[in-house]
Batch of 2 targets.
Target 1
Amino acid sequence: MTPAQIADALAAAAASSLPLERRRLLLSAPLAPFTTFRIGGPADVLFEAHTADELATAITAAKQAGIPWFVLGLGANVLIGDRGMRGLVIRNAASGHTMSPSGMLWTESGAIMQDVVLDTVRAGWSGLEHYIGIPSTVGGALWQNLHFLSPAPERERTMFIAEVFEQCEILTEEGERRVVDADYIQFGYDDTVFHHRRDVVLSATFRLTKADPARLHQILQENLAWRGSRHPWLQVHPSAGSIFKKIEGVGAGRLIDQCGLKGFRVGDAQISHIHANILVNLGHATAADVRTLVAHAQAAVKERFGYELHPEVGFIGEF
């Protein structure tokens, strides 16, 4: 099917419920601007969902029309192929969120974590301040059980977003809208049920506690400074975050560094000088450049240390 035929099929499939306006279905739309790596070819059809209802409708329409679909949040932790993606890509921009007097935060899944963090901190609510500076939507945060080290100076344990999670509304793989709790989500380290089923988070509720805004702002500043000294700035050198999964007892970045690969590049894809487990886009990197650089790092670590490096970043689309 051509992109135009796909868009027509989607609009027709959704006509009986919440309509997908044909004019909002963008054809052959570049995806690179919607990823933190700034890499990726076009989607056959791109639709930006502004509400949780629109998100659910777009997915349902794609299923009914037999069209492949993918939900793209902030576009972190993914590498989209140079040939792009077939079918429908739904950019989740559903960002509504409200705070109750009792400390319950309700938010749609496309809300950007940094926006939600700042809003709750300014209002004196604690629970999400640890995740400042981590590029993610709320849906992405739940997908990976977002985590960061506890406040300075001790940083003695890892704080998980599961600790303040109350419940979320999902669209299940079978097409049912339902509200689920932590038992269903099965939070683990960088793992949840969403890695194993095509359920999609539509909205979520978190349980926050009152705190001194001055202390919360201090945590924000300390965490931003800590991350800034260890990670390249996305605004200058786009990346997808850590490229390889954590290895028990030894960091993937340390192994790559010990192979002397900091600064090594293929085309405009480079292993960061700051953090060897982060690959950066120096301006015009392609997905092919990144894949070649990934393979080179894997081979070097395997040859020198015997460890298998496994990508943490999802390789999406056609390469």
Target 2
Amino acid sequence: MSRNKLTVSAVAVKDLAQELQRRGVLAPAQMSADSAAEAVAAGAEMHELRQAESALRALWTEARNNSADDSLGLKIGLQVNPAARGLLARWIAHCATLGEALTTFIDHIQLLNPAERWQLLPAGDEVEIRFEFLLPYPQIAVERSMAAMLAWGAVLGGEVFGGEVTAGTENASRLLPVRKAELARTGPADSQLFYQTFGPGIRFTGAPGGVNRLWLDAALLQHPLPAADVYLRDLLAARAQQLPVAGILSAGAQANSAGQTATKAPLSLRVLALLEQDIHKFSQIQAVCAAVHLSRSTLFRRLKAEHTSFTELLNQQRLRLARSPQAQGLNATELADLLGFCDSSSCYKFMRRCLL
């Protein structure tokens, strides 16, 4: 698909344009009166509308050219407005855990912007997240995505990360905690907001066009979302599949077959998300294969390539549950049920083997 055929969420374009106007970076005359505004006037649902990807990229270019604020991308990313949600944001809000929300977002990021790509790379007790655009967006757009992920993660996590966030606030103290971060840029003149957002482990590599990434504690992905609703999640997922989205960049625009595969979250994290969702159902390998549309042998081979196995992931999730507050005070039968065992004897053998 050629670049000029790519479309993005109209909500993303509208919100960015209004935010740039509010900050005095974009004059009202620079906002294009496009088909999205006309469709809204005609009664169309804004959160399902699409606009040309070039419109969003042009706004970011204007922002870079018209502002000397080195932290503009962070400030926009930290600007939380729970009422402004497109279809994808509404969908992930009803996922069961932060991990499921994040993998769902990455797997379907084309609903927001097919020119943007995030990658999750498991690394022991950490998860590395890489951020990039497959078309020429300025660095402030990447930094906006990084800050927005931390801010929205805290919003979705609810009371776990500090409770309700007031609409329209910039609050770098209410974010998912970051272990370390790398930004492909030189250090800003005023780095205070960068350190508030990404923590003391931030490093400026001074390499434009390089890797932008951060590392989170893998345990964060286990946190449940207070607003989770399986029924609404599945309705929104089904609706998303019906949208005529111009979704993936062609080989000529850098997203070759390898790149398209990379937009998917690692298989190991997708399997973990399934186990978090329903450990009874997905402790059965057949159910996992059906959910990820892979044969048993292919599933095993791809997990091996990620230096893990289905048994290891299942045991990992069971250990997390066994050590969680949910497990405290349970009798043998209740604990076996929590960990997805059919009987307490199997649960006892597992606990003895893995915990003693």
